[in-house]
From TrEMBL:
GO biological process terms on file: adenylate cyclase-activating G protein-coupled receptor signaling pathway; adenylate cyclase-inhibiting G protein-coupled receptor signaling pathway; cAMP biosynthetic process; intracellular signal transduction
Protein name: adenylate cyclase
Localization: Cell membrane; Cytoplasm
Catalytic activity: ATP = 3',5'-cyclic AMP + diphosphate
The keyword Cell membrane is annotated on this UniProt entry: yes
Taxonomic classification: Eukaryota, Metazoa, Chordata, Craniata, Vertebrata
A GO molecular-function descriptor: metal ion binding
Domain annotation Guanylate cyclase: ranges: 305-432, 905-1050
Positions bound to ATP: 310-315, 352-354, 398, 957, 1037-1039, 1044-1048, 1084
Pfam families (UniProt xref): AC_N (PF16214), Adcy_cons_dom (PF06327), Guanylate_cyc (PF00211)
Keywords associated with the record: ATP-binding, cAMP biosynthesis, Cell membrane, Cytoplasm, Glycoprotein, Lyase, Magnesium, Manganese, Membrane, Metal-binding, Nucleotide-binding, Phosphoprotein, Repeat, Transmembrane, Transmembrane helix
EC number: 4.6.1.1
Residues the record lists as binding Mg(2+) 2: 310-311, 354
Source organism: Balaenoptera musculus (Blue whale)
Cofactor binding annotation: Binds 2 magnesium ions per subunit. Is also active with manganese (in vitro).
Length: 1109
């Protein structure tokens, strides 16, 4: 039973639960209780009038009824004002209880002779409703219930004190012996009011009353405990659901920002759908496709302008920077460029080292795309000029712009980056490479779209790019109209270098100046996410502060009236809590049918009815308590005939068998020690808990068994109407008569059979999760059975009892309150409607609890899916070891992420033949089919990364048909420096194996596509700086001389070969690889370098040969 009482929640939750939620749920029950009492009083008046009694002749009864009607009408009026109820909850509940108690005691002493069984059913009603329908805590309800019990017992015990001179004729007694004297008749004075003449020693009846009240208290407390547990569970699930919704909203915002930081919205929707499909199909698995190709997310757009920009002199400057300075500098520069791009309706595509390129006219067409790109280029040059003027650092900006059409989208499976491809993109790149520092270099196509918006001058082509010379198209330099104004102003503000001193490094000067630009940090929206609501204290502070002890429950203030005071999260909180209000069950709902409370979704209704119910065993145990109470009562008020004892013995066996079945799982250890043939017994309780049909059958059988045993004593009373107290020879002088019919029970058992029937009604309410329609059927069956017995077939027993009680009195007809059959029938109807109301309320709570549990599970699953999606997206932008730095509370600080490494192997692998293969014609859909093949190549390369042996390989990016990757990035800073050279660079072997695997993949693609592509690979290792830059589109990248040289190793390499530097060749030879010298070659920006080719025929000593194609 202890498991029925949930552990106490945190104070904040408990405060809100007690002040609002619990009261809002029990408020309708309080009103219904008052209505039931008022209708009960009216029914009493109606029965008294219909039975022909003169109400005016019994002023005590009439006064009691009128006072009750007036008092409870007043209480109903007070309780109906809900806004006052919260402040006066306990006083009003106390008044209702006190009024019920006073009414019960008024009934005791009104209408006739006072008997020990008088108003027991009414006090049982008071006791049970104190627990089930009044908004009181468990302690207050228990105190009120016990006080009600004791008041009845003490008042009757004192009033019906023992009278030793009288013999109780209606109590159980032994049959007279033949030698005993016959019954004597003598005169008794008229006694219209007072204790019954036959109840001189009512101890057995008072003991039976005590058992009834104790059972009522236990059943009421059990019912309240179940309801409190259900209410608290639903309340917590609602709060957990709110917490999950907030987390879900946060995760949706996360993944939305992440997707939009990688892709345009139109493309993000398509790719998100595929990721969701992959998550549902299995971790990382790709859904089955109708063809052998990977999904291609590329579209053609016409009427766009492409801008390429390169920072001249940045490479030399970057070599003087610390890692932190480098990342900060790049983030501030590119953050400024992103801001300029946003102002001019351009979209940044990618950052390649210190090269920045963007497009205007994507994803939506813009008529001024050419002007937008030119304006952006001019603003970029202007920003760099201001930087140079303020710091004295010799850097400049070179910009190239071309207008045409592009293929745009994403290729590959990992590290998505939105990119553009076409001959026009290549031309724009060459426009930048052949441009003039500080100027914007444009083509004739772009100039035509400018429509005279800017003045231009012809670009000198003597030292132009070979690609441009081959095209033979004239190019132009845009004249910035504001350049002359800036030259006139000069540097009147003074150089930052002159203020800081001549000894400060240029990189430090530049970093300090760039900090004033205030570019946003990457993933700033992830590092400042509002913390989700804690599960331990899940209530908003403002919401809690609004619930002071004086706060009222005016519906106009909840939630609408608080919207002005509370934020959006608090408003949502109140909206969720308002959905739990029990009054909602009578209104239209998306989830429930207001009449039957069935779920509108058939699948949910089926799931609810088939759900497991582990608490069923406790329902059965409490019903056994009611049965046991009936047994004790029958033993106290009867002479215990053998047939009754045998009947109860059989019933006890049936109950013990039922309880054994329900609790068999707790006997597992004992059963397993016994014979193997009994090892199946513990599974019985599991079957009962999980099989709805079996539960319904056992529950119905249990209730019917309790019902039937409540009226078993009537079987042993005569069925014929031959009451001896109405015989003609029995005069008003007869006294001390006893029941002497063979095999019969004393008349005292008649009213107590009615009280046992009331307990039978209560047993039906103990099955909390039993369906409302089944409870209604059982209650109707029991009501009809009880009323037919006591109002029809055995009604004469009540009349006989009245005749015996009023034998020798002037008034032989008591008031309606003292007639057992009438009061019994009224009690049956009152309990019927009360339990019907509670059954409806219980049904609603159970369904609501199930609904919120299901919602919570769905939201948790959806949240988990969203979290996985966010993780996949973030790991698709960042390496797995970097991604946690940018998620929620794992964000360690507000600094930009940067990391320096001593030994990183960098790979550039390109497919140079693809440039010749790529063409734009109607046959290949303007190059789309060529990109489809490139997508297959890159996707197959990406699939290698999922192999365990290549887990240390990190893809950095793709640049057209060039694949860039690195190893050694998952080591912590400084870790490599503490290890010897061979161990620190052992990952070079992994990169070599990866390069060979790339060649093997390309061979497979060649076989299926009938092509002869070959890889050209460049490798280099050494120190690098890694970091995340860019607020609009955060991008992980690596920089340093190692990266530049690796790129040159690829661009100056030979098809089918892996070219490495001399230092890398030595490191690979120490790992068992064979390298041979290529000789000295000229490398742009590095001069003359001695390079080596890796022998891929024998990668290591022992393994089979492998080639690059």
């Amino acid at each position: 039973m202890a498991r029925l009482f949930s552990p106490r929640p945190p104070p904040s939750e408990d405060l809100f639960y007690e002040t609002y939620y619990s009261l809002s749920q029990q408020y309708p029950l309080l009103l219904l209780l008052l209505v039931i009492v008022l209708f009960g009083l009216l029914a009493l008046l109606a029965v008294a009038w219909a039975s022909g009694r003169e109400l005016a002749s019994d002023p005590g009864f009439l006064t009691t009824m009128l006072c009750g009607l007036g008092g409870f009408s007043l209480l109903l009026g007070l309780a109906s004002r809900e806004q006052r109820l919260q402040r006066w909850t306990r006083p009003l509940s106390g008044l209702v209880w006190a009024a019920l108690l006073a009414l019960g005691h008024g009934f005791l002493f009104t209408g006739g002779v006072v008997s020990a069984w008088d108003q027991v059913s009414f006090f049982l009603f008071v006791i049970f409703t104190v627990y089930a329908m009044l908004p009181l805590g468990m302690r207050d309800a228990a105190a009120a219930g016990l006080a009600s019990s004791l008041s009845h017992l003490l008042v009757l015990g004192l009033y019906l004190g023992p009278q030793p001179d009288s013999q109780p004729a209606l109590l159980p007694q032994s049959p007279p012996q033949p030698s005993q004297r016959p019954i004597q008749l003598h005169t008794i004075a008229p006694r219209p009011r007072g204790p019954a003449p036959s109840e001189a020693d009512p101890s057995a009846q008072l003991a039976a009353n005590a058992v009834l009240f104790l059972c009522g208290n236990v059943a009421g407390a059990y019912h309240k405990a179940l309801m409190e547990r259900a209410l608290r569970a639903t309340f917590r699930e609602a709060l957990s659901s709110l917490h999950s919704r907030r987390r879900l909203d946060t995760e949706k915002k996360h993944q939305e920002h992440l997707l939009l930081s990688i892709l345009p919205a139109y493309l993000a929707r398509e790719m998100k759908a595929e990721i969701m499909a992959r998550l549902q199909a299995g971790q990382g698995s790709r859904p089955e496709s109708t063809n052998n190709f990977h999904s291609l997310y590329v579209k053609r757009h016409q009427g766009v302008s492409v801008l390429y920009a390169d920072i001249v002199g940045f490479t030399r400057l970057a070599s003087e920077c610390s890692p932190k300075e480098l990342v900060l500098m790049l983030n501030e520069l590119f953050g400024k460029f992103d801001q300029i791009a946003k102002e001019h309706e351009c979209m940044r595509i990618k950052i390649l080292g210190d090269c920045y390129y963007c497009v205007s006219g994507l994803p939506l067409s813009l008529p001024d795309h050419a002007i937008n790109c030119v304006r952006m280029g001019l603003d970029m040059c202007r920003a760099i000029r201001k930087l140079r003027a303020a710091t004295g650092v010799d850097i400049n900006m070179r910009v190239g712009v071309h207008s045409g059409s592009v293929l745009c989208g994403v290729i590959g499976l990992q590290k998505w980056q939105y990119d553009v491809w076409s001959h026009d993109v290549t031309l724009a790149n060459h426009m930048e490479a052949s441009g003039v520092p500080g100027r914007v270099h444009i083509t004739g196509a772009t100039l035509a779209l400018l429509a005279g918006a800017y003045a231009v001058e012809d670009a000198a082509m003597e030292h132009g790019d070979p690609y441009l010379r081959e095209l033979g198209e004239p190019t132009y330099l845009v004249i910035d109209p504001r350049a002359e104004e800036e030259d006139e102003k000069g540097t009147a503000g003074g150089l930052l270098s002159s203020l800081e001193g001549p000894k400060m490094r240029p990189s430090l000067l530049m970093t300090r100046y760039l900090e004033s630009w205030g570019a946003a940090k990457p993933f700033a929206h992830l590092s400042h996410v509002e913390s989700p609501v804690s599960t331990s204290t899940p209530l908003p502070e403002k919401a809690l502060s609004s619930f002071s002890p004086q706060w009222s429950l005016d519906r106009s203030r909840t939630p609408r009236g608080l919207d002005d005071e509370l934020d959006t999260g608090d408003a949502k909180f109140f909206q969720v809590i308002e959905q739990l209000n029990s009054q909602k069950q009578w209104k239209q709902s998306e989830d429930f049918n207001p009449l039957t409370l069935y779920f509108r979704e058939k699948e949910m209704e089926k799931e609810y009815r088939l759900s497991a119910l582990p608490a069923f065993k406790y329902y059965a145990a409490c019903t056994f308590l009611v049965f046991f109470s009936n047994f004790i009562i029958q033993m106290l008020v009867t002479n215990r005939p053998p047939a009754l004892t045998i009947t109860y013995s059989i019933t006890f066996l049936l109950f013990f068998l039922l309880l054994f079945v329900c609790f068999s799982e707790h006997l597992t250890k004992c059963v397993l020690k016994g014979p193997k043939m009994l090892h199946w017994l513990p599974t019985l309780s599991v079957l009962v808990a999980t099989r709805p049909g079996l539960r319904v059958a056992l529950g119905t059988a249990t209730i019917l068994l309790t019902f039937s045993m409540a009226i078993t004593s009537l079987v042993f009373l005569p069925a014929a109407s031959n009451c001896p107290f109405r015989a003609p020879n029995v005069s008003s002088t007869a006294s001390n008569l006893s029941w002497e019919l063979p095999g019969s029970l004393p008349l005292i058992s008649v009213p107590y059979s009615m009280h046992c029937c009331v307990l039978g009604f209560l047993s039906c309410s103990l099955f909390l999760h039993m369906s409302f329609e089944l409870k209604l059927l059982l209650l109707l069956l029991w009501l009809a059975t009880s009323c037919s017995l006591f109002l029809h077939s055995h009604a004469w027993l009540s009349d006989c009892l009245i005749a015996r009680l009023y034998l020798g009195t002037l008034d032989s007809r008591p008031g309606v309150l003292k007639e057992p059959k009438l009061m019994g029938a009224i009690s049956f109807f009152i309990f019927f409607f009360t339990l019907l109301v509670l059954a409806r309320q219980n049904e609603y709570y159970c369904r609501l609890d199930f609904l919120w549990k299901k919602k919570l599970r769905q939201e948790q699953e959806e949240t988990e899916t969203m979290e996985n999606l966010t993780r996949l997206l973030l790991e698709n932008v960042l390496p797995a070891h970097v991604a946690p730095q940018f998620i929620g509370q794992n964000r360690r600080n507000e600094d930009l992420y940067h990391q320096s490494y001593e030994c990183v192997c960098v790979l550039f692998a390109s497919v140079p033949d693809f440039k010749e293969f790529y063409s734009e014609s109607s046959i290949n859909h303007e190059g789309l089919e060529c990109l489809r093949l490139l997508n297959e190549i890159i996707a197959d390369f990406d699939e290698l990364l999922s192999k365990p042996k290549f887990s240390g390989v990190e893809k950095i990016k793709t640049i057209c048909s060039t694949y860039m990757a690195a190893t050694g990035l998952n080591a912590t800073s400084g870790q490599d420096a503490q290890q010897d050279a061979e161990q620190s660079c052992s990952h070079l072997g992994t990169m070599v194996e990866f390069a060979v695997a790339l060649g093997s993949k390309l061979d497979v693609i060649n076989k299926h596509s009938f092509n002869n592509f070959r890889l050209r690979v460049g490798l280099n290792h050494g120190p690098v700086v890694a970091g995340v830059i860019g607020a609009q589109k955060p991008q992980y990248d690596i920089w340093g001389n190692t990266v530049n040289v690796a790129s040159r190793m690829e661009s100056t390499g030979v098809l089918g070969k892996i070219q490495v530097t001399e230092e890398t060749a030595c490191a690979l030879q120490s790992l068992g690889y064979t390298c041979y010298s290529r000789g000295i070659i000229k490398v742009k920006g590095k001069g003359q370098l001695c390079t080596y080719f890796l022998n891929t025929d024998l990668t290591r000593t022992g393994p089979p040969s492998a080639t690059l194609g």
